[in-house]
Specification:
Layout: H1 6-30, H2 33-88, H3 95-177, H4 181-193, E1 199-203, E2 206-207, H5 216-223, E3 228-230, E4 237-239
Parallel strand pairs: 1-4
Antiparallel strand pairs: 1-2, 3-4
The structure holds zinc ion (ZN).
Residues 200, 207, 209-210, 231, 233-234, 236 line the site of zinc ion (ZN).
Length: 242
């Protein structure tokens, strides 16, 4: 392999910078805050839906209780009214029979009152449950609206990042074309092995890729050697400035 020119080495360092920005953007796309907020919003909508289902089941049960009590009040009232009619229309004349009928009417009347009291309580429960259903439906609609807004924001954020990523990939393609194939291949192999950074630059007495200080002897060897070497510490490609 012939020695790369200093322009090629500058280009290699520029390519490394582009690759870093590409990796960072890809990470940002995977980790958009709008995306995470959408997942939380979806979870909240599911929870509200579950609460709505539970409340509706409870409302149905209490509604059944209401209808049963209303029927009972109706049947008992009719019975009481029929017995009152019988008491006063002259069909019952026997004193003891009349007393027994009066006692029966009083007893049924008490049951009507008890059922009416129960019914009032149940009606309050029905009202409370209906209000709760209304609130939950409003909350769920608001959450769905929020989700739609987050989705639009996510798409907008992703659009910007995707456009930037497209430009960076075009830049990368131009930069790679300017490099000798064997140099590009060496860089890419090292970058793949070391998690993305394939080349550093000697700055002072350290390599910019690993930032570990080199011994004076190593630095001296590098400065008197070729412009492209390997870092004695991290083994990445190392550009040595002239
Ligand atoms: Zn290094």
């Amino acid at each position: 392999m012939s020695e790369p020119t200093s322009e090629q080495l500058d280009l290699l360092l520029a390519l490394q910078a582009t690759d870093h920005r590409i990796r960072k953007l890809e990470h940002q796309l995977d980790d958009l805050p709008e995306q995470r907020a959408m997942e939380e919003s979806r979870q909240r909508t599911v929870e509200l839906g579950e609460q709505l289902d539970e409340t509706r089941i409870e409302a149905e049960r209490v509604g059944g209780e209401q209808r049963r009590l209303e029927r009972d009040v109706e049947v008992l009232s009719e019975r009481r009214d029929a017995e009152r009619t019988r008491l006063y229309d002259g069909t019952v004349t026997n004193q003891r029979e009349m007393q027994s009928l009066e006692a029966e009417i009083a007893s049924v009347d008490r049951r009507v009152t008890e059922h009416e009291d129960d019914l009032l309580e149940v009606l309050e429960q029905v009202e409370g449950l209906e209000q709760r259903i209304g609130r939950l439906e409003a909350d769920r609609a608001a959450e769905e609206q929020r989700f739609a807004e987050l989705e639009a924001a996510r798409d907008e954020a992703a659009k910007g990042l995707l456009a930037e990523l497209g430009e960076l990939k075009a830049t990368r393609a131009r930069q790679s074309e300017g490099l000798p194939a064997d140099l590009l291949e060496r860089y890419e192999k090292v970058a793949a092995r070391t998690g993305g950074t394939g080349v550093g630059k000697l700055e002072g007495n350290a390599c910019t890729a690993c930032r570990i200080d080199l011994s004076w002897a190593d630095v001296n060897d590098l400065l008197t050697g070729p412009p492209l070497a390997s870092c004695p510490q991290c083994q990445r490609l190392l550009v040595v400035p002239a």
